[in-house]
Amino acid sequence: xxxxxxxxxxxxxxxxxxxxxxxxxxxxxxxxxxxxxxxxxxxxxxxxxxxxxxxxxxxxxxxxxxxxxxxxxxxxxxxxxxxxxxxxxxxxxxxxxxxxxxxxxxxxxxxxxxxxxxxxxxxxxxxxxxxxxxxxxxxxxxxxxxxxxxxxxxxxxxxxxxxxxxxxxxxxxxxxxxxxxxxxxxxxxxxxxxxxxxxxxxxxxxxxxxxxxxxxxxxxxxxxxxxxxxxxxxxxxxxxxxxxxxxxxxxxxxxxxxxxxxxxxxxxxxxxxxxxxxxxxxxxx
Length: 285
Prior knowledge:
This protein has 12 helices and 7 strands. By secondary structure, the chain is of the alpha/beta class. The protein has a single domain (1-285), classed as Rossmann fold. Helix 9 links the parallel strand 4 (153-157) and strand 5 (184-190). The radius of gyration is 18 Å and the shape is globular.
């Protein structure tokens, strides 16, 4: 697989690999993974037999990661950082994944909710409610869906870096063209700021920012591969490593026509699966 070769090329740099391993040990311990699992993962990261690893630790990956992290830790994170920024009305979560944000919004009293993704997730059935809809929507179907649904707010949480750079532009242009005036788009991304200090995890941030820009993106790419391909066992989620800094995102959205209303460099919160920098950006049409 092409992405595996890219990851292994990054890991050929021993200094980079050691930094990644140290941080993975810290973050994976923080969410409850056992020393045996962490040692098996980090002890041979460059030549990891992913299938064997997943078979050996299937129970722990299910209980600690799919349930413990994504259904307990992530919702608390959304409640703290994301849900307070979302306006009432019809909400559309683009790239919703398991649908956990939609589920939490429903529990918080939001009445009209839709989550869409290019892949279907088994959690959709259990997360469903009378006021919730989950659908597989391809890029070609997306404009029609937007026209019919007419959301008041759009969220993209950890979705944009799973798109190629030109794909990011196509999706954001389609959303902008179909959005109502003054409607809001809330973006949570694996992204860091070149100008702002983080609100969380300053020690991790200082160590991360010592690396040159190109190496920072390599570090983030390895983390993303570990999280999606190894731990989450998501074979079909695209991981093209489409990262931008907060400042690059701001310029990119402005070029399309969006108006920035709020930004927050969340930084590196506690209890994360990977020590990935987190940024929140809110735009209006």
